[in-house]
Amino acid sequence: MSFTIDDELWSAVGDPIRRRMLDLLLTDGGGTATTLSARLPVTRQAVAKHLGVLDRVGLVHVTPSGRERLYAVDEAQLARAIAQLSSVGATWDARLRRIKRIAEAIQRNQQS
Amino acid sequence: MSFTIDDELWSAVGDPIRRRMLDLLLTDGGGTATTLSARLPVTRQAVAKHLGVLDRVGLVHVTPSGRERLYAVDEAQLARAIAQLSSVGATWDARLRRIKRIAEAIQRNQQS
DNA sequence: AGTATGCGCAACCATTGGTTGCCCTAAGGG
DNA sequence: CCCTTAGGGCAACCAATGGTTGCGCATACT
């Protein structure tokens, strides 16, 4: 059945700010809390908390360098997250399809 | 760019309990707060609140019948949600692919 | 009539996402 | 070498959300 795949991972990408952060990290190839917050509508501290969340589920990893902490996307883990998204989507899609087929079958029966 | 597609809709399916509720409503073809809560690890009131959320974004619709309130999935809206999931997934997937291509190109250059 | 049941409302609690303020420490410029 | 600047962590605080319990109301069942 597997509806509860990995709620931690899903809820990590569930937040719109975190999705935008992942987008930025992907396009820029990395960033710090400060650079990210400059391009987001929230403060550095908020971004830092989000980075903590993403780090805990392994979606990003950090490399301290001097007084900076550079974050980058963990591609393997993001790939896993993508897989889960499409898995849930596929499940629902299949069910919707089945429902539609049944509905059409009923219509056909009623017309005959 | 459209990373902020429809955060309302996304965050509605972002909650694990709500996803399981949608699953149940799809497989059973509908249900009430009480019947759902019987098959979920939360109370009827919690389920009722979630149903309120799903209702507000249009993912379910309700038909009052006597003292019961029967909820069912709005298939069109769920289809929209699925489309958004796969859209975000596809975006990230494309970027990961591009990064991988670049990485391989660099490797090839360094070997030559 | 009276009981049982489905539901809504309100109060309350914990967690989370957000803010501001403060302090520490590493870089950089006179 | 000292002092300023800038990145980042920590703590307090606030609002929203997901969860609970308790209660009251109205509809159905016997």
TrEMBL record, chains A, B:
Domain HTH arsR-type: 1-93
InterPro entries attached to this UniProt entry: ArsR-like_HTH, HTH_ArsR_DNA-bd_dom, WH-like_DNA-bd_sf, WH_DNA-bd_sf
GO molecular function terms noted in the UniProt entry: DNA-binding transcription factor activity
Protein name from the UniProt record: Transcriptional regulator
Lineage of origin: Bacteria, Bacillati, Actinomycetota, Actinomycetes, Streptosporangiales
Superkingdom in the source lineage: Bacteria
